UniProtKB/TrEMBL annotation, chains A, B:
<dbReference type="GO" id="GO:0005576">
    <property type="term" value="C:extracellular region"/>
</dbReference>
<keyword id="KW-0121">Carboxypeptidase</keyword>
<feature type="compositionally biased region" description="Basic residues">
    <location>
        <begin position="10"/>
        <end position="24"/>
    </location>
</feature>
<keyword id="KW-0325">Glycoprotein</keyword>
<keyword id="KW-0378">Hydrolase</keyword>
<dbReference type="InterPro" id="IPR029058">
    <property type="entry name" value="AB_hydrolase_fold"/>
</dbReference>
<dbReference type="InterPro" id="IPR018202">
    <property type="entry name" value="Ser_caboxypep_ser_AS"/>
</dbReference>
<dbReference type="InterPro" id="IPR033124">
    <property type="entry name" value="Ser_caboxypep_his_AS"/>
</dbReference>
<keyword id="KW-0964">Secreted</keyword>
<dbReference type="GO" id="GO:0005773">
    <property type="term" value="C:vacuole"/>
</dbReference>
<dbReference type="GO" id="GO:0006508">
    <property type="term" value="P:proteolysis"/>
</dbReference>
<keyword id="KW-1015">Disulfide bond</keyword>
<keyword id="KW-0865">Zymogen</keyword>
<dbReference type="InterPro" id="IPR001563">
    <property type="entry name" value="Peptidase_S10"/>
</dbReference>
<keyword id="KW-0732">Signal</keyword>
<feature type="region of interest" description="Disordered">
    <location>
        <begin position="1"/>
        <end position="35"/>
    </location>
</feature>
<comment type="similarity">
    <text>Belongs to the peptidase S10 family.</text>
</comment>
């Protein structure tokens, strides 16, 4: 399998490939690596479009897979609860009282698929707190390396790539957090037979994740029946509704293990990818990040959201180059200019550093860290946050053009559904997400209003409550809300798992 | 004269007045206090519209005034260079080697008009550096209190309202900076006969400012003939072009003192106020800060940019309330919740505090500070950053609906003209400014490109160079660029006074 560490490749600026790498690296939780790598997807090859929004088929495949391929011991590593216990992570702050586990669960004997998880019990009173599965997107991004160690876990990695810092906004004070590297080939997850990566897609991801959950509950039986939520972002806009549908269908089977799924929440969710990509340039233009002439050229040459003509692609590429070195994932964020880890570290004062992904890669490629995590040290490629050359939307199978049928199906089961959008993300623009939600034609239960992290504080965003779905924005955040607005992200999460309304914002001041 | 300190008024929330106060306070360099206080201006009373864009008339009045009312000693305070020297300001850091002056120059004997200035020589080699006049807007805002002590002067005021902190991004390293409280009635400037405030408008402001300059050069003769620039923001979009036109016309008079005006630069300039106000709600909607329904109501009920009907005003008020307690001057800024000065101060670590205007008011109302500044201590009202109940667009005379004729006239004189826009300002949205500039139909000399604070660094904004005018955006800044993006603001200023292109931004990364 190829290395996805783009630092090993020679720079090739001002070409389509360079744009793709740029976006891929600027924040690795990418929806897809580049607006210039669309064409195969835009052409919509028939083989990839088995679902095309046909939820029944998707569900049928998932159910079938879950039943026919019962999780069994496989050729890969497979742990036990006690073997998975983490004694201490290298560089962990002293006096850390945390119950952490990590290791593998095998989900398929034939190909030797092993899914890597990291589980952190709530820091206080875990028995009374819900269980939350966090999933990053990509496809190809590590929920463990990004979600747990850059977003919402108990630790963040310092600029030296060695020291762990306490995360003041960790979600582990509120919930028992389970991070899953999914599908195999992502992060520390793998398959003995790597050929399986070539056939990977949404359905297999959902099937394997469901199989993982069944076995994980066997390993942690006190969580059986616990209130369960799935939260994540970006391409998890596919993973989460698909897995939730599989769970809800299986829960109806009298012989199945019941997973007490209460709700799902997805940030900057990829729901209708082509629409979101078409909106990207509108979004940039309205914020005066591309010129009128670049915008006009796109208007003239791109006939539709899925126009894959050379002239349209060229217009879009030019427009994107026109923006300069900004991140499509947060249009106002600082840029990473020095990708080396710092010799001394920042002593945990620089956690918002735009180069954080490089500190993660240094940390997770340290053999001592891999050992402490019980990760497979025999993998032939380095750990990367996003394995985007193996997995991206060009190659990922069963990726429906619209996730709205899944959302509708989940609303009908009474699953709590929250969608939220960091409003500075150009990759999955809030304006596109808002339009997708409006297409559901749900009745408004409580109209648009500003919300806050706590009653009476600054406006953290806006929220509109529909019957069956809550849509919230997070003001001043890009694609990854817990990185850009950790306090707002955590407040939103707390309200979500409690099923509470978001707090009101401060009244008008005089 | 009434006090404009809104803290003395009882709060009256959710009314038009409260919205006006809110916006007025949220950042005091306001274009006008409230979108709800437009109607008298929107109705365009004939008496106020003497100019209506008729530049020749404006210029004629200004020239006439400058000639007929020669600056003479008046009934107010009037200093001398040595009397104006500031020994030290209370709370000033030790070992400050600065030549600072402040005091009054009388510009009219009849009404006793005295204009207050603060002048700081460049910290190194002042004789080889240009002279820059800085003007804040409003109308009614203090260039001294806001411009010098919150934006670009050598000191900023700490959270205790007592201590002065060094401003790392002061423009005084690059230029000799002159701050003028203009017109009379603003900041420490005053008229003995306060009735004159009622007749104040653009023309009298330009006339008085020109008269001020002539006398100021007599007091500081070594600056006669020095390269001279005028820079400012907001309603200085009126003041600056008008004063510049007066200077350029008078410079043609063989008997007049020549002011060596090289250029003007204006940030978030009010150029076409009605268009900018109409754009406000589009701007907020595109950034998902108001709901679709509020936006749709405006579309239905507001026929044009100057629709002053009750139903349109109500729609706009509702939309604005809909945003919650955010600032129209920087849509992503933090809000000031505690308006008290802090007992201990932050030791100069919290200079981005959103409550900074309250620290300024505490400082400038301290009698020891007034004395050190040679300010008139006999004024019957407190010092405020913006005297918006005395001066706002409702009452301000001779305010042309479009400043484009002035800009064109200045282009024809070869005056360097830079317009820049913090792109997070909703009051004078970058989108509206861009449109105004496009109306000038200037030839493009160098097309849209990203710029940076120094070659190869982050994208600081975008710039397009026309023949005769440079238009630049400042990425991630609200209405007051030097407060929100001090490094970017200073880099832009440096390029402007040197007449250099803005530095290129970092190349695309891999």
């Amino acid at each position: 399998m190829e290395s996805d560490n783009s630092r090993t490749r020679a720079p090739n600026r001002r070409t389509r490939k360079s744009i793709s790498r740029k976006i891929g690296r600027s924040l690795p939780i990418n929806a897809r690596p580049s607006p210039t790598e669309h064409s195969p997807f835009l052409l919509a090859p028939a083989g990839k479009m088995a679902l095309r929004g046909a939820l029944c088929l998707s569900v049928a495949i998932a159910v079938f897979s879950a039943v026919s391929r019962r999780p069994v011991a496989a050729a890969g590593l497979d742990g036990s609860r006690e073997a998975d216990r983490i004694i201490a992570l290298p560089g962990q702050p002293p006096n850390t009282l945390l119950h952490q586990y990590s290791g593998y669960i095998n989900v398929d004997q034939v190909t030797g698929k092993s899914l890597f998880y990291y589980f952190v019990e709530a820091s206080v009173d875990p028995a009374r707190k819900p269980l939350v599965l966090w999933l990053n997107g990509g496809p190809g991004c590590s929920s463990f390396g990004i979600g747990a160690f850059r977003e919402i876990g108990p630790f963040l990695i310092d600029t030296d790539g060695k020291t762990l810092c306490r995360n003041r906004h960790a979600w582990t004070t509120a919930a028992n957090m389970l991070f899953l590297d999914s599908p195999v080939g992502v992060g520390f997850s793998y398959a003995v037979n790597e050929e399986v990566y070539k056939t990977m897609g949404d359905n297999m991801t959902a099937t394997d994740s469901y199989a993982f959950l069944l076995r994980w509950f066997e390993r942690f039986p006190e969580y059986k029946g616990r209130e369960f939520f799935i939260v994540g972002e970006s391409y998890a806009g596919h993973y989460i509704p698909e897995l939730a549908v599989v769970i809800q269908i299986n829960n109806k089977n009298p012989n199945a293990h019941i997973i007490n799924l209460k709700g799902i929440a997805i940030g900057n969710a990829i729901l209708e990818y082509l629409e979101e990509q078409a909106e990207l340039y509108e979004y940039l233009w309205q914020r005066t990040l591309i010129s009128d002439s670049a915008h006009e050229t796109i208007r003239q040459h791109c006939k539709s959201a899925d126009d894959a003509s050379a002239v349209c692609q060229a217009a879009r590429d030019t427009a994107w180059l026109n923006t300069g070195d900004i991140s499509a994932y947060n249009i106002y964020a600082a840029t990473c200019h020095d990708k080396k880890v710092s010799a001394t570290g920042s002593r945990c004062t620089d956690l918002a550093n735009p180069c954080a992904e490089y500190f993660s890669e240094a940390y997770f490629n340290n053999p001592m860290v891999k050992k402490a995590l019980h990760a497979n040290t025999a993998l032939k490629y380095p750990w990367v946050g996003c394995r985007t050359t193996t997995y991206n939307l060009r190659r990922f199978g069963d990726s429906p053009p619209s996730m709205l049928p899944h959302i509708k199906a989940l609303i009908s089961t009474g699953t709590r559904i929250w969608l939220y959008s960091g409003d500075l993300d150009a990759m999955v623009p809030v304006t596109a997400s808002k339009r997708s939600v409006e297409k559901l034609k749900l009745a408004v239960a409580k109209d648009w209003r500003p919300w806050s992290t706590a009653s009476g504080k600054d406006v953290a965003g806006y929220v509109i409550e529909y019957k069956g779905l809550v849509f919230a924005t997070v003001r001043g955040s890009g694609h990854t809300v817990p990185i850009d607005q950790p306090e707002r992200g955590r407040a939103l999460f707390m309200s979500f798992i409690k099923g509470h309304e978001l707090p009101s914002s401060a009244p008008q001041t005089d």
